[in-house]
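Example record

Each entry pairs one chain with its bound ligand, FE2/S2 (inorganic) cluster.
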Amino acid sequence: MTDMTTMPSPAEVQHGPDGLCDNKRAALDEIINANIHRSGAMMVILNTIQNTIGYVSPDMERYVAQKLRVPVGAVHGVVTFYSFFTTQPRGKHTVKFCMGTACYVGGVPQLMEKAKALTGSEIGKTTPDGQLTMEVCRCVGACSQAPVVTVDDEVVGKVKPNKFPQLIKKLLEG
Ligand code: FES
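Structure tokens for the complex follow.
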């Protein structure tokens, strides 16, 4: 008869000491093994992880660093430098607030405050229902359209503060 007191808890079954579940580790191994000998392997691997898994968590950074035999700091530096990478899953929609000079002066900080109040969420986070992620980004090259936000992959310029709540509500519902 199995001694229930010695059985691993569900958390122990799902996650190894590296913090990764078996499925995630297998997916990472596949990506790493397919790209480890390419030039610029770290960037290729991190890009592929972001595109296929959807984010690069600290546990995943550690795993990649260990496999590539590089310091974790080197991997972490890449993930935090490029806004393309996220450390947690993105929501169904992503709004990015341009923080370039023209947009900053043109009212993006006020749009961010409105968005935070409307969603009850923070910039850099995803709403608990997984619907919307809000982030900041660098100049997207549409300065004459300031203030600019991007909605998923679309650049939206000349965002009017009084129309902005409608946009956010639509994303929260759709
Ligand atoms: S500063 Fe926002 S698009 Fe250039």
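The chain is about 45% helix and 10% strand.
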